[in-house]
Write a structure and sequence with these properties.
Helices cover 39% and strands 14% of the residues. The protein has 13 helices and 9 strands. Strand 5, helix 7 and strand 6 form a beta-alpha-beta unit. The longest helix is centred in the N-terminal third of the chain and has 19 residues. N-carbamoyl-L-aspartate (NCD) binds next to helix 2 and helix 7.
């Protein structure tokens, strides 16, 4: 059995571990559908959800997953403001205390779910923690659990994770979701990636050279309408206003907004291909990357996708706890 102690980056999610986790997630999904609400995988376990950044889906679905598995959850509404970080405490000290590095039996929590605005934060936390760290989003670099729940979504929609075309559309530079997703999918044969971004917000050079080195087929384009006809999945992300410091980049997006949003026209031209539209959410109310008038159409899958956060995160927690015990 493969181990999964900390989950920090998508590269850890090899095809064999993905298969194991998605099979487990599917079984949790089926049990939930059948009305089961009590599982014992995390009985007696305390989970700490430590979020230094805003979240709706990731935090709630993790907490829901933990409760369903029999765990207790401790959390703070906003760690940046209400934890000792506001008094200048380092992330390392906070993690050492919660994970009880001095006296393991007096630790506050057995698993820590961490969201943090800095790149590499989960890695730093894992280096000093006495308990597993699960990265629930670090800066603009990684969001591996979102990548996994997206993989679950694609498998549900297409029946496979290999030999398909996916286009990523929007602000690809600051999207940690796209970054993690590309790393995860690059491990599968025949996945063609198409990147559609405004000038200045293209995928990062590191990701490009990683894909080239691995011989992964990818293309870059500047208009969703050019690529949607060939895409099995069109994955749209918002422009990350909370991370963009250079306002000119935001203006470049807004000036050509129609090239990066799913409109009625885009939906129509993808009819023949049967393209599915995914989005990690939140959708920006002002930019409307998925236009309101089409958001309830059958090939727009973002709400189902968000729901899959529950069984997929149940599978992750169960696996991490199982690894911790051996
Ligand atoms: C994403 C995130 O936080 O990176 N949201 C999520 O977890 N579902 C995407 C985003 O904020 O744009």
């Amino acid at each position: 059995m493969e181990r999964l102690y900390h989950l920090i980056k998508a590269e850890q999610l090899t095809p064999s571990i993905v298969t194991e986790l998605l099979t487990e997630a599917e079984s949790f999904n089926q049990s939930l559908k059948a009305g089961v609400r009590h599982f014992e995988n995390l009985k007696g376990v305390t989970l700490c959800s430590l979020f230094y950044e805003e979240s709706t889906r990731t935090r709630f679905s993790f907490e829901r997953a933990a409760f369903l598995l029999g765990a207790t959850v401790i959390s703070t509404e906003n760690a940046a403001q209400f934890s000792s970080a506001a008094k200048g405490e380092s992330l390392e000290h906070t993690i050492k205390v919660i994970s009880g590095v001095a006296q393991g039996h007096l630790r506050y929590a057995d698993i820590i779910i961490l969201r943090h605005p800095e790149n590499g934060a989960a890695d730093r936390a894992a280096r000093v923690s006495g308990v597993p760290i699960i990265n629930a989003g670090s800066g603009s670099d990684e969001h591996p659990t979102q990548a996994l729940l997206d993989a679950y979504t694609f498998e549900k929609l297409l029946g496979r994770l290999d030999h398909f075309t996916i286009s990523f559309v929007g602000d690809l530079k600051f999207s940690r979701v796209v970054n993690s997703e590309a790393f995860l999918l690059s491990q599968y044969p025949g996945v063609k990636m198409v990147f559609v971004a405004p000038e200045g917000l293209e995928i990062r050079p590191e990701l490009k050279s990683y894909l080239s080195q691995k011989g992964i087929e990818f293309e870059e384009a500047s208009d969703i309408k050019e690529v949607v006809r060939e895409s099995d999945i069109c994955y749209v992300v918002r422009v990350q206003k909370n991370r963009i410091k250079d306002k000119a980049l935001l203006l470049a997006y807004q000036r050509n907004r129609d090239n990066f949003v799913v409109t009625e026209e885009v939906y129509k031209i993808s009819e023949q291909k049967g393209t599915f539209f995914c989005h990690p959410m939140p959708v920006d109310g002002e930019e409307q990357e998925i236009r309101q008038e089409i958001e309830n159409l059958p090939r727009v899958k973002m709400l189902e996708q968000a729901g899959y956060g529950v069984p997929v995160r149940m599978a992750i927690l169960a696996k991490v706890w199982q690894t911790q015990k051996i």
